[in-house]
What we know:
Blueprint: H1 9-23, H2 29-51, H3 55-62, H4 70-76, E1 79-83, E2 96-103, E3 106-113, H5 119-124, H6 132-147, E4 152-158, H7 165-169, H8 172-185, E5 190-199, H9 200-204, E6 211-215, E7 219-221, H10 225-232, H11 239-246, H12 250-255, E8 261-263, H13 274-292, H14 297-309
Parallel strand pairs: 3-4, 4-5, 5-6, 5-7, 6-8
Antiparallel strand pairs: 1-2, 2-3
Amino acid sequence: xxxxxxxxxxxxxxxxxxxxxxxxxxxxxxxxxxxxxxxxxxxxxxxxxxxxxxxxxxxxxxxxxxxxxxxxxxxxxxxxxxxxxxxxxxxxxxxxxxxxxxxxxxxxxxxxxxxxxxxxxxxxxxxxxxxxxxxxxxxxxxxxxxxxxxxxxxxxxxxxxxxxxxxxxxxxxxxxxxxxxxxxxxxxxxxxxxxxxxxxxxxxxxxxxxxxxxxxxxxxxxxxxxxxxxxxxxxxxxxxxxxxxxxxxxxxxxxxxxxxxxxxxxxxxxxxxxxxxxxxxxxxxxxxxxxxxxxxxxxxxxxxxxxxxxxxxxxx
Length: 316
């Protein structure tokens, strides 16, 4: 089912017109010429809209129900995925997927948030909001990858860590901090990519790496726009203003040095062509892994530490 975002309405109207003309074109050369012009107009319209998205509209795209998730990238970009379950302490959090995989024959460990594809899956995954056992699972599997000298690929897509009472009782804040600490010193290359939402500590809990990239229409922020609006304006109705002030778009993040690269999305967003998006992601991962594997581990660790120490600009 197509989910129409408000600013996409002109695109869908033009697509409906194009579909109707194609059904009724017959052998008319005049109609065929009109179809060609309409197709070009559609491409130009998509490009115009998506090159000028407002920050809140970017958030809407990042949350699109049809946007590819970690499981989709595992199917389209990786081979021979073998999922690893559980944290050996409490349970198996479905909001985080972990396991061995191959990327063009290169063995690696993949860790990523999973939001779920339907209501049952989303409920089980808390819509991508991981609990402490999810982060403990991620830490354990990343340690295992480092033990065998295999690189780690982290795919981030969460509005934030799960805020439930049980999660807090089981040490949510502590385990996120532990994940950041462990990733900062793991002796293996780490690549982190924000594929959808990158919200708060839930994102940074698996977000410390040698390369941090973001998809073109994803966002990465210390807090969600609704959370920021609730704190500063006392109402989520100001979420659009909050999104603008947070500087959470890929362009802002790259300009500020928070991310190293912006991975282009298919025209109209990743949800319109998940396979093409997976191809773009795979190309970036392949190139980055080869670059990182040429460096010594000690140099990687030093650069990783300095990278995160240098993030942030302030005035006194």
